[in-house]
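Need the bound structure for zinc ion, inputs here:
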Amino acid sequence: MRVIFSDPSLKRLGTYVVFTSDGKKLSSGAADLDPETLDVVKSALNTSQFKGEKGKYLEVFTPPKSRAEKIIVVGIGKLQNIDELAAQSIGGSIFQALSSSSSRAGYVLLDEIKGRKISNSKLTAHIAYGCMLRSYRFDKYKTQEKREVKKSLVSVTMMLKDSSTARGLFSPLKSVLEGVFFTRDLVTEPANVIFPISFLARLQVLKKLGVKLEVLDEKQMKKLGMGALLGVAQGSAHKPRLVAMRWDGAPKSKDKRPIAFVGKGVTFDTGGISIKPSGGMEDMKWDMGGAGVVAGLLYALAARKAKVNAVGVVGLVENMPSSTAQRPGDVVKTMSGKTIEVINTDAEGRLVLADALWWTQKKFKPHTVIDLATLTGAIIVALGYHYAGMFTNNDQLGKKLSLAGEITGEGVWHMPLGDSYDKQVRSQIADMKNVGGRDAGSITAAQILQRFINKDIAWAHLDIAGVTWAQSASATVPKGGTGFGVRLLNKLVEEHFEQ
Ligand code: BES
Ligand code: ZN
Ligand code: ZN
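Answer from helper R.:
Posting the output first, comments after.
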């Protein structure tokens, strides 16, 4: 599916989209429709239950002579509430309405929707963005549905005066969109397709955008003493990789220190010897969600040429049980020198991140580090599927993240850290153990990560276990891999870290 920006014209054959906020009055763009069609739409509105609620729509069949094969009236709710996010939701509803009415081409009449906070062009760009975000499909393994796909929506045309301004505003959003799709693809691919080496192969496309890749193999990681990451990897036939993606977009004269993003990239998490129950284990193909977001974010930043120095690091491993797997009770030594007693091999994300975080700080000297990980089931118990858990040593960074979450609809909820949780991870024979019991499971996990963060670094950890995969669709996110985090962190960079 693609979006097109064009000046208004009613010559083309297809489904036309107009708007209403109260279910009686149509947006002024509708005035361009021929009188007969307009009458039909008006009487349909008068007789229907539809009140113009946001996210709802009415499908109206048109008289035979009309150029419009169908009219869809989309509800936009309260006009004064339309901001970027609301515009995106409207775009999502438009996609939903057009595709469920089996339209091939949609024409959105956007002129003169009055009474909003944002300009018409910005509104249009964000409607287009939302429409595209919702259009994501992953059907490469469906071999029997070719005919159905052929019937599906091909294009949506945004029609407004001065369409070129809207097209210009859409351009950076399209870069972010591509980043989100890149993430969703990585997350949705099964684990026989995406494993450390093949994940790395997917990252090669970033080079075309000007991102530099740096790769550590097993031997190099061994030399650096990354015993925690390697301990997780040692049960799998798939060899681990640690990959850094560098985007140097800041003007040369400015501060060179980057902001760093670090992702948990467990390409499949069986639990290892502390094996998980089989029900739902297939979900653990997306235990590389954090790494997927880091890759998609770097894609977005590079594609829109963000004026920032950013580095993305992903720790890629597969957690398998086998005769070479690590055992409960093993003690591993991290690159930092600290030792960890592995009580439960299923608490592997923190082991991978311990070394990935340490290496990132040593190697790139970042001022800020944000890690993302599908780290704990406990964060789903705490927050469900709507917010990511956010842990930070820096309240200012926390506020910035919260605000970026509100703007993008990818919300983060500030969770506590504190020394009093540390006794839960005391080990009898090592510096710490890797689990702290059931209570406050997400917090003790974050406390462990914090032990691998230098005090002078602004750090935030996002536990995205609940938001990486959607069980049902929402306005701009179809069921499945969400890409949660790409829009959030892109916004954070845009608002606070570009020079
Ligand atoms: N990958 C899981 C966490 C997870 C659970 C992600 C559900 C997405 C959905 C993680 O590696 C894990 O297994 N964590 C354990 C930790 C426990 C053993 C302390 C958990 O949450 O049960
Ligand atoms: Zn696990
Ligand atoms: Zn895991």
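Comments: The chain has a mean pLDDT of 95. The chain is about 35% helix and 20% strand.
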